[in-house]
């Protein structure tokens, strides 16, 4: 079974680079579509029901986290966050906040985000 993925980023060059530089079929992934802002991204997610969402955080209309949350079924998807280095601290805080609501992944990721060794949690 192939996975279905979407690419969402307001930087068109980033989307095109990922779209054309990866061998999606060889990875067992169908690229179901691309979008360039959070609102269009949410519509794309709702239309294609992807297994994998590759998205920027800071985008027009809806940020990446709100877009994923509002489109539903976030806990059933693989979410890959794209962000610039200067936004990494923001991204890690947001990921930790999402993990607080997740009973399955929260502990491990929170340990990692809090600067402790994630392996020690086992």
Architecture overview:
- The longest helix has 13 residues, at 88-100.
- α2 (38-48) runs parallel beside α3 and α4 (88-100) runs antiparallel to α5 (106-113).
- The chain has helices spanning 12-21, 38-48, 64-71, 88-100, 106-113, and strands at 3-8, 29-35, 52-56, 78-82.
- β3, α3 and β4 (78-82) form a beta-alpha-beta unit.
- Residues 99-122 have low confidence and may be disordered.
- Helix content is 41%, strand content 19%.
- The termini are far apart.
- A 4-stranded parallel beta sheet has the order 2-1-3-4, sandwiched between helices.
- The protein is of the alpha/beta class and 122 residues long.
- It is globular, with a radius of gyration of 15 Å.
Helix content: 40-55%
Secondary-structure content class: alpha/beta
What Rg do the Cα atoms give? 15 Å
Distance between the termini: 31 Å
Strand content: 15-25%
Topology as a string of helices (H) and strands (E): EHEHEHEHH
In total, how many beta strands? 4
Give me the side-by-side strand order of the main sheet.
2-1-3-4
Average pLDDT number: 76
Shape: globular
Number of helices: 5
Topology:
Elements: E1 3-8, H1 12-21, E2 29-35, H2 38-48, E3 52-56, H3 64-71, E4 78-82, H4 88-100, H5 106-113
Parallel strand pairs: 1-2, 1-3, 3-4
Helix pairs in contact: 2-3, 4-5
